[in-house]
Amino acid sequence: MIFVFPGQGSQYVGMGKDLYSKFSVAKQVFDEVDDILNRKLSHVIFNGPIEELTDTENAQPAIMAVSIAVLRVLEHVFGKSLFIDYGVKYICGHSVGEYTALCAAKSLTLESTVKLLQVRSKAMGKASARCNGGMIALLGANLAEVEDILKSLRVSKVCEIANDNSSEQIVVSGVFEALEVLINALKNSSVKRVIKLQVSGPFHSSLMKPADQDVLEFLNNIEMVRPIVPLVSNVTAQAEDNAKNIKKLLAQQIVSKVRWREMVLYMIRHGARRCIEIGPNKVLSNLVKRIDQSMSVKNLESVDTVNEFFYEFSLLTA
């Protein structure tokens, strides 16, 4: 079994609200995040507006808070550590979800994670403000085809592959002018649809410089320990458990392509057969299923989905 944690773009207004209302362990997470930030992020999460929630400085800690709240509720319902007692083989996350994964695996404390995401989101927001860019998802195209199209473009502005999500979904980051040129060049390609993502900048591209160095400097001054289960890195698409190396990879991730398809295939090759997505929406669950239809997937984000999972798991282990 693997645990995966979603990234930016998965947010929606009201996520986690039922968990907050019903479980004190979930409420404690949101309250602690609010206290660390010294502002009511929970109010934005539960009430919006979506434009404010989508802002990088809100979206990153918000998605992390909801995911950790779900995990705390899971452990409360099961009455034990899921990592230790139920054989979680790997953890991973998509972009900011990687930070959530490390918090879940006790490599980072919740306080350190919130403060780290403060630094990360501000640094990325600052970089985004300088370049007037965004991200688009290309459905129906694979990595090699998009790489070839990008090489053929005659643009002086940055336009780079940001996420290799599946064999039929590639995300590109760039300045808006270059993205428009790319969209026009896709008319004779296998791309079936172009979707503008709910993000506020061209993440995972060279346009994020020098945010990576800001994050690395902060990382070097906080404590990080070995995760209780290995992290499959966005940058290497391999298992990592050395805290010093993970710090470098977290910073590098900001300007690097997220190798999600390769990450999932790596975990499958090493025995993963069941994927549990912990956090808002079903983005990663759907991607995992597209990568390998034989994988069992489940998204946990609400009271109902947690209770359903507990019931199903109880039957399987009875």
UniProtKB/TrEMBL annotation:
<protein>
    <recommendedName>
        <fullName>Malonyl CoA-acyl carrier protein transacylase</fullName>
        <ecNumber>2.3.1.39</ecNumber>
    </recommendedName>
</protein>
<feature type="active site">
    <location>
        <position position="95"/>
    </location>
</feature>
<dbReference type="GO" id="GO:0006633">
    <property type="term" value="P:fatty acid biosynthetic process"/>
</dbReference>
<dbReference type="InterPro" id="IPR016036">
    <property type="entry name" value="Malonyl_transacylase_ACP-bd"/>
</dbReference>
<comment type="similarity">
    <text>Belongs to the fabD family.</text>
</comment>
<dbReference type="InterPro" id="IPR004410">
    <property type="entry name" value="Malonyl_CoA-ACP_transAc_FabD"/>
</dbReference>
<keyword id="KW-0012">Acyltransferase</keyword>
<dbReference type="InterPro" id="IPR024925">
    <property type="entry name" value="Malonyl_CoA-ACP_transAc"/>
</dbReference>
<dbReference type="InterPro" id="IPR050858">
    <property type="entry name" value="Mal-CoA-ACP_Trans/PKS_FabD"/>
</dbReference>
<dbReference type="InterPro" id="IPR014043">
    <property type="entry name" value="Acyl_transferase_dom"/>
</dbReference>
<keyword id="KW-0808">Transferase</keyword>
<dbReference type="InterPro" id="IPR001227">
    <property type="entry name" value="Ac_transferase_dom_sf"/>
</dbReference>
<feature type="active site">
    <location>
        <position position="204"/>
    </location>
</feature>
<dbReference type="GO" id="GO:0004314">
    <property type="term" value="F:[acyl-carrier-protein] S-malonyltransferase activity"/>
</dbReference>
<dbReference type="InterPro" id="IPR016035">
    <property type="entry name" value="Acyl_Trfase/lysoPLipase"/>
</dbReference>
<feature type="domain" description="Malonyl-CoA:ACP transacylase (MAT)">
    <location>
        <begin position="4"/>
        <end position="300"/>
    </location>
</feature>
<dbReference type="Pfam" id="PF00698">
    <property type="entry name" value="Acyl_transf_1"/>
</dbReference>
